[in-house]
Amino acid sequence: MTDLPTDLTRATAADLADALARKTISSVEVTQAHLDRIAAVDGQVHSYLHVDTDGALAQARAVDERRRAGESLGALAGVPIAVKDVMTTKGVPTTCGSRILEGWIPPYDATVVTKLRESGLPILGKTNMDEFAMGSSTEHSAYGPSHNPWDLDRIPGGSGGGSSSVLASFQAPLATGTDTGGSIRQPAAVTATVGTKPTYGGVSRYGLVALASSLDQAGPCGRTVLDTALLHAVMGGHDPMDSTSIDAPVPPVVEAARAADVRGMKIGVVKELGGEGYQPGVRARFDESVALLEELGAEVVEVSCPNFEYALAAYYLILPSEASSNLAKFDAMRYGLRVLPEGVDAPSAEQVMAATRDAGFGDEVKRRIILGTYALSSGYYDAYYGSAQKVRALIAQDFDAAYSKVDVLVSPTAPTTAFRLGDKLEDPMAMYLNDIATIPANLAGVPGMSIPSGLADEDGLPAGIQILAPATKDERLYSVGAALEAALVDRWGGPILDRAPSLGGAAAAKGA
Amino acid sequence: MSTATADAVMDYDEAMGKFDPVMGLEVHVELHTATKMFCGCPTEFGAEPNSQVCPVCLGLPGALPVVNEKAVESAIRIGLALNCEIAEWCRFARKNYFYPDMPKNFQTSQYDEPIAFEGHLDVELEDGTVYRVEIERAHMEEDTGKSLHIGGATGRIHGADHSLVDYNRAGIPLIEIVTKPMVGAGERAPEVAKAYVSALRDLLRALDVSDVKMEQGSMRCDANVSLRPRVGAPLDEAQLAVPLGTRTETKNVNSLRSVERAVRYEISRHAAILDGGGSILQETRHWHEDTGITTSGRVKSDAEDYRYFPEPDLVPVAPTRETVEALRGTLPEPPGLRRKRLQSDWGYSDLEMRDVVNAGAVELIEETVAAGASAGAAKKWWLGEPSRRANGEGQDIVTYAAGLGLTPAHIAELDGLVTAGRLNDSMARQVLDGVLAGEGTPTAVADARGLELVQDDGALEAAVDKVIEANPDVAAKIRDGKVAAAGALIGQVMKEMKGQADAGKARELILAKLQ
Ligand SMILES: [Zn+2]
Which Gene3D superfamilies match (chain B) (predicted)? Predict the structure, then answer.
């Protein structure tokens, strides 16, 4: 058994779970330690949109009570977690980073949240995100951006930058995310944390405020591959409330993470992901990781996926199309913001809808609603939405062809390290290019993971490596991820996050 | 608005001399599944507003739909009963538009992949002519909520002080059944329209998939009408080759009678415009039941773009051929065939059967016969007083009888009392009055009112003797062989007996004494 660090916020979820099971610590202690950490550092990082102090402590007390009563509890019972604000939480505000949902208190829990509650994970609060998950930096949050703990002037990735920065600043040992085009993996890469986008349908979408229904996938975020696997096992599984949910057991992700074995595996390096436009330091760390995997006993080959070139274009037609329809429900009629148009006596429902949507949605959301509305319009549908669906099928074929030759694919997760806040805000295309390596997996529905690959030489900031597996073979991500992680941590002489600034919070005691 | 002046209309016969009408009917049917199309909420009619709702049918952020399997089964059965092909694979689609009573601001419907397509329904007109209505498609969708506009004169959103929305209806399963253009009906077009909706209603009722109550909105009809120049008889090849004219769509025509009237009105209105050199505006029209006219609604244009795309929150519906065949096995006898069978079983003439059908009493008579009455008696009693009173109340006979608690078992019991010789015809009428007045079962009413044929032959014989003695001339005629004269004596005997005698027995006695 690993001894816990004196600062409980520096411990892994797996170690906390062990200590909780052995009753050497209580969930209330662990939860309180994280609440204290939040109070100390979140003013700088701005990871949370809402901290549920009372709720988290009440859940912690309840799980401690159940443990004292001798109930058999889940593997992560008592370990606190942060939940992305795109998931509905009964009685706790849910805004999706949008002004239009300010003050909305959902009357129901997302299935993922129900699973967290049933498994005894106290929910610390709701994490920041780009409005309705549209963005790669959290700069599109209506409530202000989150900051990268490695450099507070830089972005923590997006849309799940609240969850990634929570982990990198030790404000929670675990967090949930959603990934429509990279919103779990890219934030993980730029903060040196771990995140998995499971196979589409592997985790219920019920209670996730939809961005693009055919692309959205909820997944686990952690600081280690094993922690992420433990959370994956809690979140995953069939949900009768989600028609697109896979009716099969969760893949054996925890077993794979514990075995951490890549011997005999065939790994394909995607030729089209990693050339032009990739930062040299990111590329260098990626090449080293691939070399390490070979040393660990994997066979590495180059694989071509020629249609990936069109992924970004197809994605930016499918996503806005679905989003324009999904976001139509925000009309001031039943919940959320209601704005009355100025200077109009007895405004009509239509005028109230228009005024509310004008005031409640940010520019990026409006941009994508307009794009999607256009792409679905009669006369344009075939050229835009129709063509994009054909590209989507071709990308799925590229994956099929690749997986007939290799077990997993790898690439850098994002082309660059974290950019400065404000740098790409005025240039949507530059922002979109950040997701160029992550988008193909969403279009094809296959699982992907990002783990830290080291720090880029140019700027000393984290870079990530992406692992992709065939649909429903999520466990392969964890085999490769855990093996590579162990080798890298060995080489680094400790977890990479130990090198991140401590942010002057509670004394950061190093893990033993 | 109801203040709008009525449009010019052309006399119907004149219009028919100049134009050939083409119709298209879209019928929306609410299924009476226990739960809604995409969630577990109940579907009962008339519940407290917004009491049958959940995150899914309220369209709350994050909620997702799950298809009601029962509704899919009903849709397939409807498709099969309409002789349609059933899709091997089809999807739902989103129909996007903003409206306060539509929670998601899109309706989950089907677009270019309907569950059922290419069918037909043979419709029998009152004179027995059969018209085949070609069915384009039947598809699944969800109903919207219901807006109630408070204040203002029209009950429409314009001029209202405020509006209330009830989402109980939001998400109730709907099947939309769309015909192909109905051509060749000529001057009988309005009648064909009514007969089609009526036949469809009977079919859906027989399938037991919907309440099909037009007055409650569980069956709603939109009627499309267009005219083209008349160049020959309705079914002439030259006539059928004339291109279709611009159509109007009259929304929510919600009774059988209105379907006929609305089509007829639109034909006359189009004719007046076209004859005057004008052109028809492609638009929706509102039907006004009270004044019998339509008024202009929305103008349909290219601006109306629903931006349909496949519903990504649902998986495709792919019924196996085994499932479809199993469902085919559950189809009831088609109403047309069933009527022919019943007519032959009951020995009714064509005219008698038509009367029964038009009175809506087929099922009542069937149940009454099953309860032991003769077919003749069942028809006589149902089409008599109960039917007359139902008409007076403006109700159909089934609803009227149900409201009074009059059942087929009652009628069978009444018929039993007559055949057993306890009641004569006029006594039976009195008993039926009592049952309709809520006095209880026929036996109970007869008991309470002391209605019973006198079975005491002594009393009857005394009455016969008395009447013969008082009418010696009539008695003499009968003795001379003029048997028909007995009628006069029977009447007097019945009077003596205060109606409580068996007239047949009285006749026997009179003849026995005088021959
Ligand atoms: Zn519901």
Answer: 1.10.10.410
Question: How would you list the strands of the sheet with A266-270, edge to edge?
Answer: A48-51, A123-127, A81-84, A174-178, A218-222, A194-197, A448-455, A462-468, A408-412, A266-270, A299-303
Average pLDDT over residues A205-230: 98
Q: Which residues share a beta bridge with A148?
A: A151
Report CB contact under 8 Å: B62, A381: no
State the burial class of residue A341 (Cβ atoms within 10 Å of its Cβ: 0-12, 13-18, 19+): middle
Q: Which residues of B touch A98 (CB under 8 A)?
A: none
Domains of chain B listed by start with CATH number: 12-327 (no CATH), 335-448 (no CATH), 457-514 (1.10.10)
Q: Is the pTM for the entire model greater than 0.80? A: yes
Tell me which of B307, B308, B311, B315 to substitute to probe the interface with A (most A C-beta atoms closer than 10 Å). B307
Beta partners for residue A222, in sequence order: A174, A194
Q: Which of B60, B105, B314 sits opposite A328 (nearest CB)?
A: B105
Q: What does the alpha-carbon distance between residue A464 and residue A193 come to, in Å, rounded to a whole number?
A: 9
Which domains, from first to last, does chain A contain? 12-309+392-511 (3.90.1300.10)
Q: Note whether A334 contacts B: Cβ–Cβ < 8 A.
A: yes
- For testing contact with chain B, the best of A98, A321, A333 (most B CBs within 10 A): A333
For residues A207 and A17, what is the distance between their CA atoms, to the nearest angstrom?
Answer: 27
H/E stretch holding B442 reads: helix B442-449
Residue B1 C-alpha, separation from nearest chain A C-alpha, in angstroms: 18
Phi, psi dihedrals of residue B460, rounded to the nearest 5°: -65, -45
Residue A241's CB: how many other CB atoms inside 10 A? Answer: 20
- What are A139-189's pLDDT values in tens digits? 999 999 999 999 999 999 999 999 999 999 999 999 999 999 999 999 999
CA–centroid distance, B71 to ligand 1, in Å, is 15
